Amino acid sequence: MIKVIQLTLFASVIILFFKFFSDDFSKNKDFKIEIPINNNDQSENNHIKDLKYEVNLIDGKKYSIYSDLSNISKKDEMEIIDMKGVKAVFLNTKNIPITIISEKAKFNNFNYHTSFINNVKIQYLENIIYSDRLNIDFTNNEILITDNIKYIGKNSNLIADNIRIDLISNNIYSYMNDNNDNLVMNVIN
């Protein structure tokens, strides 16, 4: 009986030890998942309604993504979430939001890379960008917007093939796929 108690205490100490140290090593990124617990919303084929991920990135940046309907699958030992009815918010270090809305998205919960497709709308301050595709790459700290881009700003409108946003410097680059094509910009007075 004493051996069983000693073994139980020893196992509890080991579990608590790993719990404390695993929390210390993961402080660079906080990760929170909100999944409503409702058996009617989740079926056997991994469909989840109203799924929300919140990620605290390094340097005080934050990223959250919400979907009306999601399907979770595994690919190369990583969970890939196919989302429908998607809204995401990226907050930079100054807490200025970049809001992204799209019909569909693929979210990788290992590296947080997200690909938005179909009727993508991006809002940043007083600027709105419409496109068919947007990719967020947190490894390279960039957002790449492609396919049928229409930028509407306070003082100008722009049509381009690509817009790249550097998430570190907050610089925005717009360019065409073909060097012989020109950006189309209208200045509004």
Can you characterise this structure?
Helices cover 13% and strands 57% of the residues. With 189 residues, it is mainly beta. It has one domain: Sandwich (lipopolysaccharide transport protein A fold), CATH 2.60.450.10. The chain starts with a helix and ends with a strand.
Topology:
Elements: H1 2-25, E1 30-34, E2 47-56, E3 62-75, E4 78-91, E5 97-108, E6 114-124, E7 127-137, E8 142-152, E9 156-166, E10 172-175, E11 184-187
Antiparallel strand pairs: 1-2, 2-3, 3-4, 4-5, 5-6, 6-7, 7-8, 8-9, 9-10, 9-11
Distance between the termini: 86 Å
Beta-strand content: over 45%
Cα Rg: 21 Å
Summed up, the helix count is 1
Tally the structural domains. 1
Overall average residue pLDDT: 79
Helix/strand/pairing class, anyone?
Answer: mainly beta
Proportion of helical residues: 10-25%
Low-confidence residue ranges: 6-29, 37-44
Could you state the order of secondary-structure elements as H and E? HEEEEEEEEEEE
- At CATH level 3, the topology is lipopolysaccharide transport protein A fold
DSSP E strands, number: 11
CATH superfamily: Lipopolysaccharide (LPS) transport protein A like domain
Write the CATH architecture name: Sandwich
Characterize the biggest β-sheet. Answer: 11 strands, antiparallel
**Bulk shape:** globular
**Name of the CATH class:** Mainly Beta
